[in-house]
Amino acid sequence: MHGSVDIEDENVTVDRTSDSVNRVRAMNADGRELLFFCPDVTDASTLKRVQQFADHGYRVTVFGFRRHRYNSSYQPTWPHVPLGLTSDGRYGQRLGALLRAIPTIIAHRQQLKRASVYYARNIDQLVLAMLARLISFSRAPLTYEVLDIPPILIHDGWASRLIRAVERLCLRNTRLLVLSSPGFHRAFYDAIQRYHGEWFLLENKLHPSISRRTNAPSHNDRGQRPWIVGYFGLIRGEETFDLMTRLAERLRGRVIFKFRGVLTTVDQSRFDEALRRHPNIVYGGPYLPHQDLEDMYDEVDFAWALDLEHTDHNSRWLMPCRFYEAGYFGVPCLAVRGFEVGSVLEQHEIGWTFDMPLEDSLVRFFETLTPDEYDRVRGRLGASPSSMFVAGEDVRQLCGRLD
């Protein structure tokens, strides 16, 4: 049957998930072998997905590249086959890296043949996984996961049309498409790629092993100090950063912007200059995914979820990781009205959204927001079920589909 599978059980808890995982491990002592093709073995989402598959009884081997990011020194504890280095946005370099990875794929053809499931993340890895299946004469089903729609898939040039055609061809040989946001299916895979096969909604939720302290720090000093806005993760988008620097200038003494993570599409020199020029822009350096999240979110009042890098496509459709991180730790998000994440915030009344012009809307918001109004929204967020932010039955359902 075609269509999405979106599991959302408000009674799911981390403890129940752990019990379920133990039962699955016991039932699958013989093991099922999943080969995970990924663009970055150090990425937080890779670590989470590998652990989720292992939790649900798979023997996982990762065929992966590396990228220089906030977790680049991480050494995987699970079996992995290094494929080389790639860079964000450099498609020519990535094509060369794919070609250089082929001898490694050939050298592992016996392992490739034994696999029961192939799982590929992003278009590069989908092509590589299909090649691996051909080289090894494997009949194992292939699943394709998409966390972002990059600009190269949207533009109208010959390269974009070619890559879309390649993706459509690969999708014909894919058992299941896994998407992190319903907006991706609605606006791209249905409307543009005309994909009518099966798909599964697997949001960027936290792994069930996430925990938080029983006694969270008190923030009773709201109203006597500036509001603190946190931007954590991949710091990207010149337009986004420009907006934040203009807000820092206009809201000096009223708002502090706190960054953690690594720069991707924001120029390092411009970022350093903004730190020197604006005392209310603070950078706390890189962080360890999962491990440092609670301390980071305990220090802020809001999570910045206004992504302006690609407002006509990916930024409008995605559900960012920080929505789930911030939500779990009880920090309301700020987002653009009409974007996918903004619609979710409005539906549940657990954050704030803003119309164009964003700069003036945000200035008015911070100039008029009262501690009482903030506490009302934060209270609704705190009452939300953990299953809204922490993975559980949805992952179990996906593993059932992979089998």
What global shape is seen?
A: globular
Major sheet size, sense and barrel closure = 7 strands, parallel
Biggest sheet strand order reads 3-2-1-4-5-6-7
Radius of gyration: 22 Å
Give the structural class.
alpha/beta
Compute the average pLDDT.
Answer: 87
Strand residue percentage: 15-25%
The share of residues in helices is 40-55%
SSE run:
HEHEEHHEHEHEHEEHEHEHEHHEHEHHH
Number of helices: 16
Distance between the termini: 16 Å
How many beta-strand segments? Answer: 13
Low-confidence stretches: 1-29
Walk me through the structure.
The chain is of the alpha/beta class and 403 residues long. It has helices spanning 14-27, 44-55, 91-107, 109-114, 122-136, 158-171, 182-190, 238-250, 268-277, 293-298, 314-317, 321-328, 340-348, 358-368, 371-382, 393-402, and strands at 32-38, 58-66, 80-85, 117-121, 142-146, 176-179, 199-201, 227-235, 255-263, 281-283, 302-304, 333-336, 351-354. The strands form two sheets. It has a seven-stranded parallel beta sheet, sandwiched between helices. Strands 10-9-8-11-12-13 form a six-stranded parallel beta sheet, sandwiched between helices. Helix 2 links the parallel strand 1 and strand 2 (58-66). Helix 3 runs parallel beside helix 5 (122-136) and helix 5 packs across helix 6. The protein starts with 13 loop residues before the first helix and ends with a helix. Mean pLDDT is 87; it is low at 1-29.
